[in-house]
Amino acid sequence: MMLDEVFGEDNRLGIINWQKAYSPKNDAKTVSKTTEYVLVYAKDRARAAGGRLVEPLGGGFEYRLLTKTIDARTVLSMQRSELIDIVLTSHWETQRRSAPSLSFFDGAGYQYLIGTDDAGEGYFLIWDNGGPVGSLDLETYKTVVTEGRRAGIKPPYHVYARYETFQSPNVRFWKIPDRILTHLGLDENDEYNSAEQEG
Amino acid sequence: MDLLGFQEKAASQIARRFADYAADPLMVDRQTTVPFLQTLVSITGSGKTLILADTIAQIRDHLPIQPIVLWISKGRIVVSQAYANLSSGKYAENLPGFMVKPLLQLAPSDVEDEATPLLLVATVGKFAVEDEEGGDLRVFRAQLDLASESLWTLLAKRRTPTGRRRPLIVVYDEGHNLSDLQTRRLLQLAPDALISASATMALPARLENTITRLRNDRGWLDAHFTTAVSSKEVVASGLVKERIAIGGYVTPMETAIDAMLADMGDAQDAAGKLPVPFRPKAIYVCSTNTVDGVPIAEDIKRPFLDRQARPILIWRHLIETAGVDPSKVVVYSQLKFAPGFAPPPSMRVLSGGDNDYTTFLQGDFEHIIFNLGLQEGWDDPTCGFAYIDKEMASSRQITQVIGRVLRQPGAEHYPDSALNTAHFYIRSDEKGVFDDILEDICSQLITEHPSITLTIKKDASGKVLEKINPEPPRTVPTIGILSSTAKDPIAGIINGIMDFSQGGPNTVGQGSRMLVLQEIGVGAEATFEWVEVEHSNRVTARAIFRRELQRLYSGALRRAGGPINLVDIELPKFDALIELTSPAADHIRAKAREVVEAYIGHSRIFQNDFDAPYSVGPVQVDPAEAVPFSKALHSKYSGLNPLELKFARALDKSQRVWARNPRNSGFYIPLLDLSSASTYWPDFLVWVDKVIVAIDTKGGHLLTDATLGKLFEIDTLGEPAKVVLRLVSEGEAQVSAGGQINKLSSNGFTVWSWKAGKLHAQNAEDEKKVVKLALAV
User: Fold this and answer.
1) Nearest Cα residue to B275 out of A25, A35, A94, A171
2) What is the dihedral of CA A153, A156, A160, A161, to 10 degrees?
3) Which end of chain B is more exposed for a tag (fewer CB within 10 A), N or C?
4) What is the DSSP string of B31-74?
């Protein structure tokens, strides 16, 4: 199914998430749910994205099977490179007829710009220096516009960030972590936080 | 997919009406309720499927047990699209937790699984058969190995292992197709609700009995049976085109098509320059195998060049004369060719009807020649042009075709209004006949699409609308929203939200007992009784909170967003499962309102000097009624109302450069306001030295608003202020020291501005004085 697509495209990263059980029972207090996902990395991509060392398999791919419960906390504690992977592979825009396939933006020195889609629209991930996911505010927006211009990308800009305190008609905003959880298949009546991790 | 404000309102209204009714329904007999009836009246392109999906999700939240939904449509393609969209496509997230299946794949275990809401998709062909016993064999045959009882009985009983009957909601998309026979079959299932959606209100006679019961025994009035979506809001949201232009051509086919191709070329240029470019498409509606003017079939045993069938003549004109690339053209109809007389290899003919639909979509053709057989399901928004051949030109057929070209590409109106227009080129031989048809269409359109501007030219030869470019080009900075100071107050409110994840009495619904049909006893002894169930299906606090935010303020700047993007909606306490009518849910909704109020109270609009400014685009005018101006950016305008025309003339005399600002596609100001639409379009833009004055002549209604300052006070980010707003209302009025507005007389006008944080009124006896006051900056 989706693997075909993944293997068909060079250096493209794919994500497969298992259909999770859904049962909002009236009697059960909590429903234990697991989402498993497989990340497929291309060698160059992973290097460029996070500078991680990845052992190449034949054909330049490495496969990692991560079996963990994806929840809000997991997303918020992700490293930038992990978050880039997950944004690029899970991005799903319901207004469109098909999922745009995002590709990693090939170019060094960008703080926020992470990828482009088939139509050439740019995707940005706001990230505080060394810190967690940031906000789209006046300052970070300036950088988005500057990087967009430098990369020759026209608005609308797709921006992934934690908060949006600066609204421009040129921005399509994707909130972290909710949008990512939705893209991974969680719906409104699913728990965003797994019971096991609550302490 | 996020709902727009009007969509959310419609869905909530239907769900709430259903919940009220279902708590205390009328009965047919001891076991059968009179179904809840509702028609969603909403124009093509307004997102009916999305509204219906959300309605169902909300109805589920009100119910005591998980419902079964039967979702039916007329055509096979409409149904398969609905299935794709609802099960895994764009609307899947609007049906949280639902299992979506084709009706034919229904298994008894699906009905018995009372923990999962179920949605079954079917075409009417699957059940609308006259003979119930002999019946639709395909349905039963397909299920023999799975079902011990027939599918139909299974649905009628819909019993859970604990003996309860699950609620059945029947949804009929495009409900005007509902026939008496289908209605009778549906009523045999004893549904709890029948919800249909249509562009016009139409219910089959078979429902007369149900309607009478609801009228007589429940006091329902006409308005109780329908939930209407305002066409005005649909147009304003950008989902549909804002104008329909119809040209009647008493000329040969070639002339009409050439006029269309010329307009289409302009539109393609404009669409190609957009940030997200697209290619506008055209459809050609004509008869298939007959010759012009002769109702008999054409002799097909003739060489291609001798053929007279309309699709062939149109195709040849496109390829041979107009130079269109043949790979962009398709004939999608059952055009016949005799053996040995094949068409040229470059001609694409799809004659397989539904079976060729996928091939048709994949071809992404720009010129589509078809008879009216093209499926209702085809609703490509990039299709904005239609040529209609004379035999096909009846008002009924044309209004059908209009539905195909009404959707707006990108769900956004563009500065070049040619892209916001549905263009029609209708060819006829006799002028008299033609005038009648056009009048019919006109009256029909005004009823169905009251908010869409209609331009009709009865004896067109060239273009119907004249395009006027702005001269010279001018720009205005866009206006954005800053809400960084709202972040902390909102975090404080979120912090004050109680955690209901431990359950408890506050999460249980109050006063919302619903009746469920329960089997008591076993075997032959079994009887059925209605039992009261206090609990309803539980929902996350997150879903309740998000929906309430959406309902109160669905976001400015013509898109969803706003307050929700400042909330830590992922917090574990939003995972709490609660009932809709519980005190917990009330608490969550109250907090959502506080968040919206804090957002509005602390946010500011500002002049955005970072982004590319709005540049005034071309306008399309109706040459017949256009008025020339000398100082305007466009040499003429049409469609001004008498008051606007007065001001336009006065502005023109002021010697300032000005432009009429088109509603829905021009310059706009986001409104931070709970009570009205979230985008504001001033009527006129006037350039006064380095400042642009935005003047609105219909702003009187805004003056009562407490948040008026949010509209007038446009912050800047260090740059000098360039945009100034002036409202004009009819009649003389004054503002008291306490901010009260007192009307003095109904003569003259009042010019409203903002000075030192306060509303300021100046009276003017005529429009000349108004312009003078408004431009004094």
Assistant:
1) A171
2) 110
3) C
4) S-BPPEEEEEE--TTS-HHHHHHHHHHHHHHHSSS--EEEEEES
pTM for the predicted model, two decimal places:
0.81
Residue carrying structure tokens 């905003």: A173
Q: Which of B93, B275, B546 sits opposite A155 (nearest CB)?
A: B275
Q: Can you state the angle between helices B583-602 and B541-552, rounded to 10 degrees? A: 40
Using DSSP, state whether B681 is helix, strand or coil: coil
Give the whole-angstrom CA distance, residue B453 versus residue B232: 11
CB contact under 8 A, B275 and A154: yes
Mean pLDDT of chain B: 84
CB contact under 8 A, A22 and B558: no
Contact indicator for B562, B599 with CB cutoff of 8 Å: yes
Identify the closest residue of chain B to A182 by CA–CA distance. Answer: B93
Residues of B in contact with A165 (CB under 8 A): 482-484, 486-487, 566
Tell me the chain B residues in contact with residue A169 when contact means C-beta distances shorter than 8 Å. 478, 480, 557-559, 611
Q: How far is CA B517 from CA B116, B117, B343, in A?
A: 18, 17, 64
Residue in A116, A167, A168 to test binding to B, most B beta-carbons within 10 Å: A167
Contact list, A26 vs chain B (CB under 8 Å): 535, 537-538
Amino acid sitting at position B684: F
ipTM of the modeled complex: 0.79
Tell me which chain B residue has its CA closest to the CA of residue A195: B572
Name the amino acid, one letter, at B1. M
**Token pair 């589920």: residue:** B60
Over residues B233-281, the pLDDT tens digits come to 888 888 889 888 888 888 888 889 999 999 999 999 999 888 778 899 9
Q: Long-range pairs for A79-84 at CB < 8 Å and ≥24 separation? A: A79/A50, A80/A50, A80/A125, A80/A127, A81/A46, A81/A49, A81/A50, A81/A51, A81/A52, A82/A50, A83/A125, A83/A127, A83/A133, A83/A160, A83/A176, A84/A49, A84/A50, A84/A114, A84/A115, A84/A125
User: Residues near B440 by Cβ (< 8 Å), separated by ≥ 6?
Assistant: B395
Q: Which residues in chain B land under pLDDT 50?
A: 128-148
